Amino acid sequence: GGKAYATQRGDTLTRILDRFDLTYGQLLCSNPDIDFTGSLEGLTLCLPIEDDSTGCSEMYTVRRGDTLDTISQRYLMISDRLMMANPDLTVQDFSKVGTMICIPK
Q: What does residue 5 show for φ and ψ, rounded to 5 degrees?
């Protein structure tokens, strides 16, 4: 399920992801037949609807010295829950400064 979005002139992948607060993985999963390397003008995309039971309570930006374990401890949750809320990230991504992480509800 999702909602339709007709791309507009000047839309880029980055603008769409930012505008709808999506990851590339989420958009690709909802639009497996779309080639995102070409022009996006004139396309109708399916935007995933966030499931409230697994949605983000906030987004966290990885800082220097962070790891999956330290972020999990900071938010008092097991690391597996953070990994499931961020299926497009690897364990190493939780240590890369600037990575955006979904903190689940």
A: -135, 120
For residues 5-9, average pLDDT: 90
Record the pTM. 0.50
Long-range pairs, 46-52, Cβ under 8 A, ≥24: 46/2, 46/3, 46/4, 46/5, 47/2, 47/3, 47/4, 47/5, 47/20, 47/22, 48/1, 48/2, 48/22, 49/1, 49/2, 49/3, 52/105
Confidence class for position 89, pLDDT limits 50, 70, 90: confident
